């Protein structure tokens, strides 16, 4: 029984590391991703060799292995959300009159904003562009919502930003 528990939790750890490794790779963190990959493969080799060598005698190991994989996917995605690694670009489209006051409010709260003039179907619009750390997304969204302004907000993952207020990488 203890062997099944070890397989289950080792697989959860291995798959969670796989998820994090993938995230770090996509964010350009090659060295950290490589280190995580090394640990991940060590765990995988130990677990899979144990399961494969005795699966004929104990088919429960196969089910526990698969269950650990599924739970590891879930745990890895939760870890990735909590770490909130990376950058986002927010584009906030508002009426021309509300653009400058919203930009000033965000700037007062230490958020860099770039204003762009745009044309809507019926009226001129202001597009506010913000590059923010992903972990700050909820705070920034709350600030925008507090202003009770009719807006369209799109959020996109951003691979890299050079320069910018509050984003300088050290």
Question: Describe it for me?
Answer:
The chain has five helices and four strands, in the order αααβαββαβ. The mean pLDDT is 89. A four-stranded antiparallel sheet has the order 2-3-1-4, covered by helices on one side. Helix 1 (2-26) runs antiparallel to helix 2 and helix 1 packs parallel to helix 3. It has two domains: 2-83; 87-158, Alpha-Beta Plaits, CATH 3.30.70.120. The chain has 170 residues and is an alpha+beta fold.
Helix-strand pattern:
HHHEHEEHE
Strand order of the largest sheet: 2-3-1-4
Low-confidence stretches: none
Coarse morphology: elongated
Taking all Cα atoms into account, the compactness measure Rg is 23 Å
Q: What's the quaternary structure here?
A: single chain
Instruction: Kindly report how far apart the N and C termini lie.
Output: 48 Å
Helix/strand/pairing class, anyone? alpha+beta
- Beta strand %: 15-25%
In short:
The protein is of the alpha+beta class and 170 residues long.
